[in-house]
Amino acid sequence: MNIYNDYLKEIEDRKTQGLNPKPIDSADLLSEIITQIKDSNNANREDSISFFIYNTVPGTTPAAAVKASFLKEIVLGESVVNEITPAFALELLSHMKGGPSIKVLLDLALGNDITVAKSAAEVLKTQVYLYEADTDRLEAAFKSGNEIAKDILVSYAKAEFFTKLPEVVEEIKVVTYVAGEGDISTDLLSPGNQAHSRSDRELHGKCLISPEAQDEIKALQAQHPDKSVMLIAEKGTMGVGSSRMSGVNNVALWTGRKASPYVPFINIAPIVAGTNGISPIFLTTVDVTGGIGLDLQNWVKKTDANGAVLRNENGEPILEEVYSVATGTVLTINTKTKKLYNGDKELIDISKAFTPQKMEFIKAGGSYAIVFGKKLQTFASKTLGIDIVPVFAPSKEVSIEGQGLTAVEKIFNKNAVGSTPGKVLHAGSDVRVTVNIVGSQDTTGLMTSQELESMAATVISPIVDGAYQSGCHTASVWDNKSKANIPRLMKFMNDFGLITARDPKGNYHAMTDVIHKVLNDITVDEWAIIIGGDSHTRMSKGVAFGADSGTVALALATGEASMPIPESVKVTFKGDMKQYMDFRDVVHATQSQMLKQFGGENVFQGRIIEVHLGTLTADQAFTFTDWTAEMKAKASICISEDDTLIESLEIAKGRIQIMIDKGMDNEKQVLKGLIAIANNRIAAIQSGEKPALTPDANAKYFAEVVIDLDIVAEPMIADPDVNNADVSKRYTHDTIRPLSFYGGVKKVDLGFVGSCMVHKGDLKILSQMLKNIDEQYGKVEFKAPLVVAPPTYNIVDELKAEGDWEVLQKYSGFEFDDNAPKGVARTGYENILYLERPGCNLCMGNQEKAAKGDTVMATSTRLFQGRVVEDTEGKKGESLLSSTPVVVLSTILGRTPTIEEYKAAVKGINLTQFAPSHKLLVR
Fold it and tell me: Where is the Aconitase B HEAT-like domain positioned along the sequence (predicted)?
């Protein structure tokens, strides 16, 4: 009774927060509940039955195994519960999705009681989450002559688990809710500082937008009970920024429908929209839940009589409204005509949201069911020795005679699975591809583990070369929330087969290295496909896609991903980079020059950026590829020269060896295998057998952008432009300004050097600047705090070996101590240098932030409202993004420097330099 009484106490505690009982995943608690159900005189029996039926987490959780076992007893008549008949027990099993429930259903279907076997078989025919152990049992039974097994296989071969589902309704009535004007970050839907609660879906749902917005959504639902609420980003893109399944989960929790009456707080099928559509990563996540994402295009550029775009005094295109989607507008989505209507008036074609594949996701309640269903149909057809019956929409295959391949097209063709043999595929083709590297990060990892449990996966796919679970997003503060969540996550992922930042057994020291940096190191083949649980999964080797926690789970479980081959935009460079500029300025200039070249249109959005940075090693090139998430690109590919790629692979090998030396490799020696892959790749490059990846000369691009280095004359800053009169222009990454714009007078309250956008060279720049300032002025004095968070421990170790860390220690007022990590977040800053633990730190904003209302100068990628710094009533917080030297000098001065001050401060310092071709200035 102690376990159950503790649960009752937790229920009472949750009531004070307006929450329902937490879903049960504990085997011990559910066993206690079952004991009470079996005791007809137990005072808690009625509640226990309700908890058992409606409040138990399905999939492969410990509780699911106990539930499935008890339901089996009921079906076989070994236990009698009047409230749960054998037929109802089978229905409950059908909603448990996989794992223990499939094992029980197979036990029943292949058992001796023919009546029970037939009933269980009918339930099995509706299930798709079967793994090798399950299909092996079916195959063996079929080969031994079991007719029930044959019946099930015939059904699978016909894909009746899909064909017998209800068709998608023709008309979907929606009522609009404008969640915000301008780009809507996933931070608005699932704030980073609430990351600790993501696995508690009901609790986390309370952080969606604001309590006021939640009340408004409920009011709309009360006024329109027959309609779905459609969440809208007016004059912007929905779901930019982080790749958050939790954001989609929250939207679905408030506006979607229940996935099952017997599974608590898991909703599906949200409907979201944006004037400029949906961010690519967010749209993938919407597909996971069987939802709908619309590109409204309800504001367009105003033109004159000659068709020329009209612009305001700032040179920005003037927008005019084509049709209104103001909150409370009733619209109709027609899935047959694929149009959006207001009454009888047609507003816009929305066919992109209703491709044959997306229609399947909607019908099946999500993309997972389709992925697993296709595999199941293939297995059944092969076992029966018959051809696959065309059931699912054929993959679109685009092949253009005489047209070469871009780099991403080459990678997709190499890794394609199930496409027409020998057919060369171009952009627009729908492709299943094998995934080489997978990454899970710590604030979405708990959700990834839940997704793996829900799809009944227990071990990583053998075709994945390597996978890593990070600890970087919770590195800053080892608080009670982290202590409760992270060890549990690490154990799950370690058991599943991933290399984990923390060892559940405590045999090696915890690493908090930034996930993107680790993935960049363990990617040892530029032909690789990488999937990672973070929008900044943007490697400078291979092609990497930031993904929601569910897509990460799918990649871990199956070793595959499905997506169209994206279009590419080619980025090349001309001219010479000035000695006093840093490569980060080139990155910002790329965004700025691209927008000018295309009249304000972001041609990068939703596409691959193929950037020709051949002379930069992977560490330095990562500064560019990492930023492409903020350019709203789907992904990026770095075209490297042979010698540079070899150098990058040698660096990666060394870092992987360090992980091995620390004891991080697992039983399958995954890390050792990655070194072998790297050695093979180096040998193939050196022999000329397979040079570094390059596109074909006759490849076709959506656009080509040439960046002129000669006109990049001063440091460039990405400004959130928090006071822009046009709300939609605030907090985008498109406002890129030269340093001189600020006139050397803008107050800077805090500086941040760190996270994934810096490499070892940036920390060496910091070290050199501090020494120079000391020599010039006799002391180093900060007029604003400077927070420094190295991306990895390797960088710290290398800086120690080279003498730079000693310099940083000399001028610091705080240095992290892994033996005594901070237990609470810092709430105030002194005007000193803080040497923080490797990890995300301020960039993530979930543990520590700058003081409210601060103006922050940062090397980070994040300038979204409330991310790095929150607002006060009197002043908006703002996070300006710039190069390391600009950040450092701003904290020394307490303001933005003038260009003259900047040039003087960096004189003689080796900044991160880049030159096209072989003109790189060696550091």
Answer: 6-162
* 620-659 pLDDT per residue, tens: 999 999 999 888 899 999 999 999 999 999 999 999 999 9
- Give the span between the Cα atoms of 775 and 779, in whole angstroms: 7
Question: Are 39 and 112 members of one domain?
Answer: yes
Residue 390 is assigned to a structural domain of this protein: no
**Structural domain count, the chain:** 5
Within a 13 Å sphere around the CA of 449, how many CA atoms are in the beta-carbon half? 26
pLDDT of residue 923: 33
Are 142 and 150 in contact by the 8 Å Cβ rule? The answer is yes
Of 521, 546, 564, the residue at which a domain comes to its end is 564
> How far apart, in whole angstroms, are the C-alpha atoms of residue 556 and residue 452?
8
Can you give the pLDDT at residue 2? Answer: 86
pLDDT in tens, 604-624: 998 999 999 989 999 999 999
Non-local CB neighbours of 224 within 8 Å, separated by 6+ positions: 173, 175, 330
Domain of residue 84, CATH code: 1.25.40.310
**Domain end (from 547, 564, 581):** 564
Cα separation, 675 vs 683, in Å, equals: 12
Task: Tell me the three state secondary structure of residue 886.
Answer: helix
Which helix (H) or strand (E) segment holds residue 299: the answer is: strand 299-301
- Are 446 and 492 within 8 A, CB to CB? no
**pLDDT at residue 281, as a whole number:** 77
C-beta separation of 840 from 475 below 8 A? yes
Domain co-membership, 60 together with 110: yes
On the 0-12 / 13-18 / 19+ scale of CB atoms within 10 A, 309 is middle
| Helix axes of 618-627 and 642-661: crossing angle, nearest 10 degrees | 100
Q: Report the distance separating Cα 825 and Cα 846, nearest Å.
A: 10
Q: What is the CATH number of the domain that holds 598?
A: 3.40.1060.10
Q: Is 181 within the bounds of a domain?
A: yes
- Check whether residue 193 and residue 279 sit in a common domain: yes
- Element housing 560 (H / E): strand 560-564
Q: Where are the beta strands (DSSP E) in 330-420?
A: 330-334, 339-342, 345-349, 416-417
Contact between 383 and 153 under an 8 Å Cβ cutoff? The reply is yes
Confidence (pTM): 0.84
Question: CB neighbours (10 Å) of residue 666?
Answer: 14
Q: Give me the residues of the chain with pLDDT under 50, please.
A: 919-923
Angstrom CA distances, 331 to 292, 294, 325, 348, stand at 14, 12, 9, 11
Contacts with 783 (C-beta within 8 Å, 6 or more apart), sequence order: 831, 891, 892, 893, 894, 895
Contacts of residue 291, Cβ cutoff 8 Å, sequence gap at least 6: 248, 252, 256, 268, 269, 270, 271, 272, 362
Q: Is the domain of 698 the same as that of 731?
A: no
Q: At what angle do helices 793-802 and 760-777 cross, to 10 degrees?
A: 40
| Residue 272 belongs to a domain | yes
> Is residue 556 domain-shared with residue 571, that is, in the same domain?
no
What secondary structure, in 3-state letters, does 189-218 show?
A: HCCHHHHHHCCCHHHHHCCCCCHHHHHHHH
Quote the CA–CA distance of 707 and 703 in Å, as a whole number. 13
Q: How far is 696 from 212, CA to CA, in rounded Å?
A: 54
Domain assignment of residue 776, yes or no: yes
If you count DSSP H runs as helices and E runs as strands, how many of each does the chain have, helices first?
A: 31, 33
Tell me the DSSP string of 434-479: E-SEEEE-HHHHHHHHHHHHHTT--S--TT-SEEEE---TT-S---
Residues 461 and 603 in one domain: no
Q: 673 is in which domain, residue-wise?
A: 566-708
Residue 164 amino acid letter: K
Quote the DSSP letter at residue 867: T
SS3 content of the chain, % helix, strand, coil (to 5): 40, 15, 45
Residues 597, 464: one domain?
A: no
Whole-number Å distance between alpha carbons of 128 and 369: 6
Question: Is there a single domain that holds both residue 688 and residue 726?
Answer: no
